Amino acid sequence: MAILSTQTLIASSTAVIAIAVALSVLPGWFSAKLLWFYSETRCYVSVTTLSALNNATAECITFNPAGIVTAVFDDLISYPIYKAGTRYGYAYPGLWDGHGHLLQYGEMLQSVNLFGSQSMDDVLGKISLYLDQNPQVGTSTEWLRGIGWDQAAFGGKMPTSSELEDDDSIKGKYIMLDRVDVHCVWVSQAVLNLLPDPLPETPGGEVITTPGPGVFCDNAMDLVLKYFPKPSKVQKTKYIKNAMKDLNSLGIVGIHDAGVAPADIKLYEELVEDKDWSVRVYAMLECEKRNTVCFDDAFKVTRDDGLLDVRSVKLFADGALGSWGSAMITPYTDHTNSSGSLLVNASTLTDLTTAWATAGYQINIHAIGDLANRLAIDAMSAAFDVLCPDAPRHDCQALHRFRIEHAQIIHPDDQKRMFELGIIPSIQPTHATSDMVYAETRLGPQRTEEEAYRMRSLLPVNPVLGSDFPVEPANIFQGIFAAVTRRSPHTGLGADGGEKGWYADETLTLEDALKGFTLGPANAAFLEGKAGAIEVGGFADWIVLDEPLDEMDIDELRSVKVRETWVGGKRVYRRYDKSVGY
Ligand SMILES: *[C@@H]1O[C@H](CO)[C@@H](O)[C@H](O)[C@H]1NC(C)=O
Ligand SMILES: *[C@@H]1O[C@H](CO)[C@@H](O)[C@H](O)[C@H]1NC(C)=O
Ligand SMILES: *[C@@H]1O[C@H](CO)[C@@H](O)[C@H](O)[C@H]1NC(C)=O
Ligand SMILES: [Zn+2]
């Protein structure tokens, strides 16, 4: 024991002296070699850097023990071990999801997956099977959770609580199931029995009563959530760790977590100290009570290692298109009585935006409908006038980088304003391909053509691309496929069931789609130069693929499997491949 520590002492003091001597006395090339000694280098068949700083492609990446890239270069004879032939793989910058929900994703990984269910029997069968495997859930203290139902699978009729009582294995359980867009919940009779009668009014929400009770949408979900037994700290910790592991396996190194309660950010702060925190999280703070000012609970976080960042806030203007909840300037084409609803009125949205912006928070407003997008832009404009009374609004935006989450349906006049101001749209390409089957019915042809789910048109304002996991699968290659083809990554087909992409004028090039999942999120999170590219001074985050993306058939993008994922110079995921032996 004593001998060992003496040796360690001698070794480390020798190293310190050697570094000091090298840095002060020896010629530059020698100190560079010494630094190299403490650093690590990985070489690949090619490295796509996406960097404006160094070459677009290279072969090797050197990074230091702090997980920062120190060199990006072509192979030198000094790295014989990596000479061609023994090298494998194509490196790309680590992928970022510009809009997802970490805790909910972890929770989903431990719930009934109802995505793609074809009928009520199908749904009941999946729940029954889940209960067989997880007999402990469904009690008053641990409700059975599920996500992914869509009334389209029930002939367009909303589901009811009583239907969950039809199956003997499910009957009597506490159940809460999220709609595919997470803007409605469907609950069992046991949960319904907890609610007051009559139910209080919920502006901005809808309690569904036809064909029967059981579904609550938008603000009305709060009626149910009030009784939902909150997951314990232990459960949440498990959600986060499982989610990170899963995201790493998809090549994801960072996410924008689109709405995290202050108490959960406290938990993140604790967990980020663990070595298995392996995804960079740029979290948008969301007050315990949605659309409020909560400065007493709010706080910012920055860390040198870049593993957790909090400096933005999430506000909500409206609900989702699927449930006619998004706020429109003129009524829905298939619901001529309704233009959806705002979750807050224009003056409240402006007050909230100005209050948070003045406190130094980046503003991220959820806006789907064209009225919601218009009011979000109004609110941001008003905040610019307070933040930068003497500067053009465009310059103020460049400094504060306000963004609109989803930015789904935007009136042409407002698209123009967005460009003038430079407001960042945060877009989910798979929302476009999931919604394409009904969007035109809701919106009519003209609005769809001029306003809806734009991607290429919005390129000038640096879009951020994301998936909105768990609402959509977290696989970014599916998002890239959706952006590049405007066809469903699940079927490979367009809205009409054929090869034609949906409003294909709005497709992105492969490069722009990749940038939307790397450089775009880096910019929208104030992380340019650190994330989104492989470059000197940036985080040593990258992924390794078996084949270069631009040589794949478009269809292959749907099923790309990542070989390795690196975060801060640590390999956080490696796919074991028997045939290759590593
Ligand atoms: C680009 O690559 C060439 C060849 O490897 C190298 O000489 C040059 O220094 C590189 N440029 C930058 C900016 O890294
Ligand atoms: C429109 O509203 C009227 C009155 O509220 C209602 O009777 C009618 O069913 C509604 N129509 C549609 C298409 O929702
Ligand atoms: C907007 O909503 C707030 C809060 O609900 C309310 O106090 C205010 O009067 C409303 N303003 C307008 C113009 O409707
Ligand atoms: Zn979201």
UniProtKB/TrEMBL annotation:
Ranges of residues in domain Amidohydrolase: 90-573
Pfam families attached to this UniProt entry: Amidohydro_3
GO MF terms, alphabetically ordered: hydrolase activity, acting on carbon-nitrogen (but not peptide) bonds
CDD domains per record: YtcJ_like (cd01300)
Keywords: Membrane, Transmembrane, Transmembrane helix
Secretion signal span: none
Transmembrane segments: 9-30
Protein name: Amidohydrolase 3 domain-containing protein
Organism the protein comes from: Mytilinidion resinicola
Organism lineage: Eukaryota, Fungi, Dikarya, Ascomycota, Pezizomycotina
